[in-house]
Amino acid sequence: MRKIRPTRRSVSGVYALRGEIPIQFESTLERDFLIRAEFSLSILDVIPQPTQIPFTGANGQTYTYTPDFLVYYRLGNVPYGDYPKPVLVEVKPEKEWRKHWREWLPKWKAAWRCAKEQGWEFHIYDESRIRDQALANIRFLERYKRMQFPVEESRWVIENIRQMGSTPFHYILARHFIGLYRAEGIAHIWYLLAARQLDCDISRPLNEFTELWVPTNE
Q1: DSSP labels, 28-73
Q2: In a 3-state reduction of DSSP, which class is residue 160?
Q3: Number of other residues whose CB lies within 10 A of the CB of residue 146
Q4: What residue ranges of the chain have pLDDT lower than 70?
Q5: What residues contact 204, with CB distance under 8 A and at least 6 apart?
Q6: How far apart are CA 88 and CA 119, in angstroms?
Q7: Which helix (DSSP H) or strand (DSSP E) does residue 168 occupy?
Q8: Which architecture does CATH list for 13-131?
């Protein structure tokens, strides 16, 4: 693992994935990637700098390339052949990879071959795959994550949604929180989503028509 040092060009630090696993990041784009990964219930684990890959540069010299992350997914209740493959990830701003893609192509080809040999996939993530509607929604929900509400009330809301399978935000709000309790109810529902006790299609704008359901542990 290469040592991560602060630079004038980027912001480095440590992100505690799900409050447990400290993962170093070298840029705000890598940090935002980790924020999205943390929210996703389908992601089981993120391994930083998972492997060193030898490759030959255009000048004939041999170098070593270390991708940023290896992402493991929960297998879920799906047939064996449909299991999601782990993904080897390189996080790069679009401006950088467009400028240097010819220079970096040999190491990325080596990473693709390595991933294929391991039964993984290899992807490059730039702003278009990280700083999207999903990240904006996750950022919005962060303000509700540390709020506290009566446990029994939360259970009541969750169980009603579980029985219905799924329901729009406005329906559960009208059923459980009316009149003076409406504002508190809005915060409570967003809290349950932020705390991952409820789920939704996070890639779509959050509003009163957002469809909610109870996630499974599979």
Answers
A1: HHHHHHHHHHHH-TTEEEEEES---EEEE-TTS-EEEE--SEEEEE
A2: helix
A3: 9
A4: 1-10, 79-81, 217-218
A5: 133, 210
A6: 10
A7: strand 167-168
A8: 3-Layer(aba) Sandwich (3.40)
Return the domain boundaries, the chain. 13-131, 143-212
Positive or negative, the CA dihedral 172, 177, 178, 182 is negative
Contact 98, 92 (CB under 8 A): no
For residue 183, the surrounding DSSP H or E stretch is helix 182-194
**Tokens describing residue 164:** 């219905």
Cβ within 8 Å of residue 205, ≥6 positions away: 133, 137
Nearest to 39, CA basis, from 158, 184, 215: 215
DSSP string, 97-154: HHHHHHHHHHHHHHHHHHHHHHT-EEEEE-HHHHSSHHHHHHHHHHTTTT----HHHH
Q: Which two tokens stand for residue 199?
A: 């789920």
Residues in the chain: 218
Amino acid (1-letter code) at residue 162: R
pTM of the entire predicted model: 0.89
Q: 193-209 pLDDT, tens per residue? A: 999 999 999 999 999 99
Give residue 103's identity as a one-letter amino acid code: E
